[in-house]
């Protein structure tokens, strides 16, 4: 690298001599790579002579994370006992992480310590330091939206590193990644920052990454990306590759985005994000043509949730939101990103277009619900129903084993999706086994359960209790009150298995 810079300097010197002969007009702009400017900004030695001293200092704070989880693959019938037994398999995984305190707090990616069909936390997490000492780790907290997690090991006097403060990352800066790729153990790679605030089209509050050409592969997830001062500027998170391995297009969660999430998890709190409660789509070329608006500016409101901040501000279906709090809404700066990164309770102006007229509404930003709740609200009754292979709790297991169905809470959004009154309270059927009595009697995904044995049920635990009480009383069935689109509720007795 020094040789390349040496040649560049020689060429630039020649260029300067030519410039002196030709004498540029007074006041004319000079090229970005004009010699006097380059002499000021180009590092005299080019790349660092070595990263060895930096790595020697930082490497002890980077850890290897390995995980184990029992996953249920299916259920088999024991013909001798007449019982159903789960078929399980132990799955292993892992990645990287780094210590942020001397008493054992460790940052990593949520996906490193998640598994199973619904991204549950793994059963066992083991942390290995560079000195090969192993510790069992406790999951302090995890956040699906940011893909961050915080672990804790029982130890003191440990080496640790600090996050960079502010937004120090600049395109072209040298960075060093330390992690555990491909099961090889602690590995160091270096490169530069290729882009900052990179939007890769995932949407939401955290679709802004540091892009780097530093070699990152499977197993680097959760590991730190350091600047040359030894500060953590990013947390390695993902790569884009047509071959499944590094091609120099890699992404890290910026430190400034990670810090508030980690602080909340450490305090035992859920990270707070802004929320308007609206469904939106980009203003495509076709939508823009239909409304007489410029394309790629603003977002079109498809849905407004009752009682949420958007409705309270006066937003309506068909509005186009052009600006949020004075910031233009564009494909690079989406409405979701701006709002999610606004503190709940903040009053913000919304510039919108309605029926060809521009107007301003004022909204008080609400609090974004948990991701699992939002995922549940996107309920499609026509989606192919599949029974969960691994019930997520004792209540779900009781319902699945006794009634042959899976349920989830009935929210107003789900009620609208299945075509019933949004004020309905109860459960919604997510799946029904065809061989069950419920399946034979025509119950299906999207049916709402309002009560069981005349007792209102709004949680899996409530329904499981009715089932348990019925069995204790020697009853072979429960009476479910079912509500389906287009008709009144009906009582259907379902045999218990």
From TrEMBL:
Start and end residues of each stretch annotated as Disordered: 370-395
Domain named PDZ: residues: 269-356, 384-485
Keywords from the UniProt entry: Hydrolase, Periplasm, Protease, Serine protease, Signal, Stress response
Location(s) in or outside the cell: Periplasm
Known EC number: 3.4.21.107
SUPFAM superfamilies registered for this protein in UniProt: PDZ domain-like, Trypsin-like serine proteases
Cited SMART domains: PDZ
InterPro entries: PDZ (IPR001478), PDZ_sf (IPR036034), Peptidase_S1_PA (IPR009003), Peptidase_S1C (IPR001940)
Domain of life from the UniProt record: Bacteria
GO cellular component, one term: periplasmic space
BP term (GO), one: proteolysis
GO function terms (MF aspect): serine-type endopeptidase activity
Catalytic activity: Acts on substrates that are at least partially unfolded. The cleavage site P1 residue is normally between a pair of hydrophobic residues, such as Val-|-Val
Stretch forming the signal peptide: 1-19
Broad enzyme group: hydrolase
Record-stated family: Belongs to the peptidase S1C family.
Official protein name in the record: Probable periplasmic serine endoprotease DegP-like
Native organism: Sphingopyxis alaskensis (strain DSM 13593 / LMG 18877 / RB2256)
Organism lineage: Bacteria, Pseudomonadati, Pseudomonadota, Alphaproteobacteria, Sphingomonadales
């Amino acid at each position: 690298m020094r040789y390349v810079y040496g040649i560049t300097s020689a060429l630039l010197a020649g260029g300067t001599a030519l410039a002196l002969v030709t004498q540029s007009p007074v006041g004319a702009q000079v090229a970005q790579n004009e010699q006097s400017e380059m002499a000021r900004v180009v590092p005299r030695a080019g790349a660092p002579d070595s990263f060895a001293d930096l790595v020697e200092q930082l490497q002890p704070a980077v850890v290897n994370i390995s995980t184990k989880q029992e996953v249920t693959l299916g259920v088999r019938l024991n013909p001798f006992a007449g019982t159903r037994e789960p078929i399980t398999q132990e799955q292993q995984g892992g990645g990287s992480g780094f210590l942020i305190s001397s008493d054992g707090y460790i940052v990593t990616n949520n996906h490193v310590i998640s598994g199973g069909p619904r991204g549950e936390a793994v059963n066992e997490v083991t942390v290995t330091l560079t000195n090969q000492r192993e510790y069992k780790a406790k999951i302090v907290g995890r956040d699906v939206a940011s893909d961050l997690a915080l672990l804790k090991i029982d130890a003191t006097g440990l080496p640790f590193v600090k996050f960079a403060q502010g937004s120090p990352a600049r395109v072209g800066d040298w960075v060093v990644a330390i992690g555990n790729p491909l099961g090889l153990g602690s590995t160091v790679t270096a490169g530069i920052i290729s882009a900052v605030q990179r939007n890769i089209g995932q949407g939401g509050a955290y679709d802004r990454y540091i892009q780097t050409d530093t070699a990152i592969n499977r197993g680097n997830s959760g590991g730190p990306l350091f600047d040359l001062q030894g500060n953590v500027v990013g947390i390695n998170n993902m790569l884009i590759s047509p071959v499944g391995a590094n091609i120099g297009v890699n992404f890290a969660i910026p430190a400034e985005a990670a810090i508030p999430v980690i602080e909340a998890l450490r305090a035992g709190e859920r990270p707070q994000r802004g929320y308007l409660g609206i469904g939106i789509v980009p203003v495509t070329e076709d939508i823009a043509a239909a409304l007489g608006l410029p394309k790629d500016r603003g977002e079109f409101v498809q849905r407004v949730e009752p009682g949420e901040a958007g409705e309270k501000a006066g937003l309506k279906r068909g509005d186009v939101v052009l600006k949020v709090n004075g910031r233009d809404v564009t494909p690079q700066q989406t409405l979701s990103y701006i709002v999610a990164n606004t503190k709940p309770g903040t009053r913000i102006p919304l510039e919108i277009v309605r029926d060809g007229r521009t107007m301003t509404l004022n909204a008080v930003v609400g609090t974004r619900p948990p991701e699992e709740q939002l995922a549940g609200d996107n309920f499609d009754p026509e989606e192919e129903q599949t029974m969960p292979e691994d019930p997520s709790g004792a209540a779900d297991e009781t319902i699945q084993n006794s009634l042959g169905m899976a349920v989830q809470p009935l929210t107003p959004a789900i009620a609208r999706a299945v075509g019933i009154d949004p004020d309905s309270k109860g459960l919604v059927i997510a799946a029904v086994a065809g061989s069950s009595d419920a399946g034979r009697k025509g119950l299906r995904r999207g049916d709402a359960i309002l009560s069981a044995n005349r007792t209102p049920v709004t949680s899996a635990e409530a329904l499981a209790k009715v089932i348990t009480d019925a069995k204790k009383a020697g009853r072979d069935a429960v009476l479910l009150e079912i509500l389906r689109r287009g008709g009144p509720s009906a009582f259907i007795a379902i045999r218990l298995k």
